[in-house]
Amino acid sequence: MLPIDISEHGYLVDRVIKISVGGAVIIGIVSFAILFYMLWRFRRSKNPTPLQDVPPLLKKVVYIDFVMIIFDLILLFVSTYAWFIFFIRPVDKIKKEVVDKGEKFVEVKVIGRQFFWTFQYPGKDGKFGTSDDFNLGNALVVPENHYVFVKLTSGDTIHSLFIPNVRIKYDAIPGRETHLWFKPAKTGVYEIACAELCGEMHYRMKAYLVVLSEKDYKKWIEGAPYEVSVLKDFEEKFAKK
User: Fold this and answer.
1) Is the peptide bond before 84 cis (omega within 30 degrees of 0)?
2) Distance between CA atoms of 10 and 66, rounded to whole angstroms?
3) Cβ atoms < 10 Å from Cβ of 159
4) What phi and psi values does residue 144 have, to the nearest 5 degrees?
5) Separation of alpha carbons 116 and 129, rounded Å
6) Which residues contact 132 (CB under 8 A, 6 or more apart)?
7) How many Cβ atoms are within 10 Å of 54's Cβ, its own excluded?
8) Of 181, 176, 221, 202, which is closest to residue 87 (Cα–Cα)?
9) CB atoms near residue 58 (< 10 Å)
10) Contacts for 75-78: CB closer than 8 Å, 24+ residues apart
11) Are the CB atoms for 234 and 189 separated by under 8 Å?
12) Residue 19 clears pLDDT 50, i.e. is over it
């Protein structure tokens, strides 16, 4: 069972997974059915001497290969479309489209270190490199229905930022900045994990995605980093995790 999808585009990833798994099951059933039939139909007790030619029925099996090729092409098209939406298109181009359309977005910098995540915010002015920038440990706070553009890197070894509920998993690589994006569509608290074995305490490298309403997020960002009372309810949930 896949975790609940709270992103606007996660359904594309889910579609690829379902088609891949469903297709693999169907192809597996058909393939084993043909295999067992051939083992039974051409068993040694019924055919003590080698056949001089391939039986007509066996020749027709080749048509199944054509069906499988067509299925593979369909799967390739669907998966390529999802890959194109998420990974191939430059994030800068997507950001430009968002700005041109006048849609709302926020930016966050993420640094992975053994064994915690640091999330850097531009403050209420929305610009990095100014006096109101601040850091938050192990909590990615974003507004609902806003594009979230992330700049990801690592401070030591390779990590992997994995947010199952928005269908995102990207490697954090030392000395390299990776750009990614997502758009959360539901408020709540969701787990973030490191999906790359990064040391003996790798299992403890856990953070949380906190999706607030636009009003609550504005209140939080304007009071940050000192006034974070709007996160009180979420902090209680953190303690229970």
Assistant:
1) no
2) 31
3) 30
4) -65, 140
5) 23
6) 122, 123, 124, 125
7) 10
8) 181
9) 14
10) 75/16, 75/19, 75/20, 75/23, 78/15, 78/16, 78/19
11) yes
12) yes
Most confident of 44-58, 130-144, 146-160: 146-160
Look at residues 138, 173, 135 and name the one whose alpha carbon lies nearest to residue 152.
173
Length of the chain: 241
Tokens encoding 105: 């977005």
- Identify the residue whose tokens are 């891949």: 20
Question: In this structure, are residues 161 and 177 in contact, taking their beta carbons and an 8 Å threshold?
Answer: no
Q: Model confidence over 143-188: pLDDT tens digits?
A: 999 999 999 999 999 999 999 999 889 999 999 998 989 999 998 8
User: Could you tell me the CA-to-CA distances from 10 to 15, 193, 211, 217 in Å, in that order?
Assistant: 9, 18, 16, 23
Query: What torsion do the CA atoms of 226, 228, 229, 231 make, to the nearest 10 degrees?
Result: -160
Residues with Cβ < 8 Å from 56, sequence gap 6 or more?
none
Rounded Cα distance, 231 and 208, in Å: 12
- Rounded CA-CA distance 195/158 in Å is 10
Question: What is the C-alpha to C-alpha distance for residues 237 and 187, in angstroms, rounded to an integer?
Answer: 14
Given a cut of 60, is residue 16 above it in pLDDT?
yes
